[in-house]
Amino acid sequence: MAELLEAAISISLASHMRITNSSHFNFSCHHLNPTKTHNFPFLLSSIPNSRTQKAKSWKLVKPIFSATSCDQSALNDETLSPPTPKNDVLRKNRVFFLDVNSLCYKGSTPSLHSFAHWISLFFSEVSLNDPVIAVLDGDRANEYRRQILPSYKANRRKTFSVERFSRSSFSRSHKLVVDVLRKCNVPVVKIEGHEADDVVATLVHQVLPKGYRAVIASPDKDFKQLISEDVQIVAPIPELNRWSFYTLKHYTAQYNCDPQSDLSLRCILGDEIDGVPGIQHLVPSFGRKTALKLVKKHGCLENLLSAASVRSVGREYAQEALTKYADFLRRNYEVLSLKSDVDIQFEEQWLCRRDERNDLVILSSFKEFLSKTQDLKLQNQSNSNGLKAVT
User: Fold this and answer.
1) Does the pLDDT at position 133 exceed 80?
2) Which stretches make up the 5'-3' exonuclease domain (predicted)?
3) Strand 56-61 and strand 29-34: pairing?
4) Which of 61, 208, 333, 349 has a CA that sits 20 to 30 A from residue 316's CA?
């Protein structure tokens, strides 16, 4: 299936522009530690199975750069990101981290069409030619947290088992997404045994000392714990059909606390979507109001638990809960906090400007390919139903 998309893109490029020998389409890939890959649960049963290459547990598809791409001056992105004070003369350049998996769903339904839609808007209206690093969940990504808390993302496992997505569908969809990103000059990182969230957190901590602003492109609320003056989020808003920036100022206005305090609050209240139970399951009277008051006063969960171990920090039920269930809360913290020690090193060439000149042709070809695939699938279903009716 990926080969069909490759051919479609090549034909489109040939009809829209002259192909030169400028090496814009010379790709280099580094592969290590081969393993199976099936991260994207999309079922495209109407497409003939193609022989897929063995995927890699640590996969980096390096971007394509022109000889002058690193010398281009920074774009003025005032219209795309929150305004910066006029005295901020030395404005920091941006580097984007793209959370790929989260873009491949329409609601809770896997959808390559959703990925195509949001990635097109992202390139044309948000990142432009700023550097972009795409990150995918690795194989067995959730095992670490599930060993700590077996209920972690258990609901998602049930959803996948009901849908019965085949391994071949995972592999074909994964390859299509990676191929499109590669052709748009985006390096793709995937590390076995690690969720994309932890990989992004690690790379963000590595790029900040280089003097860049990090922008995380994702609707995932877990990234809010990374927000700072130099770390922003840009999220797709389906209701408005656009991406929207979310900064430290937005966060403070919304929650009236700092990101670290919010993480501690989630550890107390739990996260139902991710299958992390809150303390109210054990102590029903310990609600959000009590938790917010204590976290604001003590700053973070560990400070609160340390204080509760030596003196009274609140009403009797809260004091008893904090001392009795301290290990429960620390376990939640370990599960919900993002890791910044994944074994990966940020590469300097990722900071070069992205060559975006072929985005329109590549993404248009991808959307056309998906539309034809959908039409073929519907036609096959219609023919199948017709035969059943005749019989």
Assistant:
1) yes
2) 93-354
3) antiparallel
4) 333
